[in-house]
Amino acid sequence: MKNKNDQQTVDWCEDLFGLTYKQEIKHGTVTAYKKHKCRCEFCIKAKELSDQRAELRKVIKAQAQQVGVV
Question: If you placed Cys at 28, which of 42, 50, 59, 67 could pair as Cys (CB 3.0 to 4.6 Å)?
Fold first, then answer.
């Protein structure tokens, strides 16, 4: 498996097979939004959904603590 941080392996693969390392971004994911700083409409929607889910988890956890479940 090719490691992008191992320059010797990357150079060897490029020389031998003509391969080049290309970082691919999967759009519509929170990883693309955060790590790759992608601001397409799909990544923005994914981040909004992630934030909504986090807020919902926070509310559910607070309600559970009030009831004494957790």
Answer: 42
The contacts found for 39-47 with CB under 8 angstroms, 24 or more apart, are none
Residues 20/21/27/31 CA torsion (nearest 10 deg): 180
pTM of the model: 0.61
Using CA atoms, how far residue 13 sits from 7, 57, 66, in Å, is 10, 45, 58
Residue with tokens 């909504």: 52
What ranges do the domains of the chain cover?
Answer: 7-67
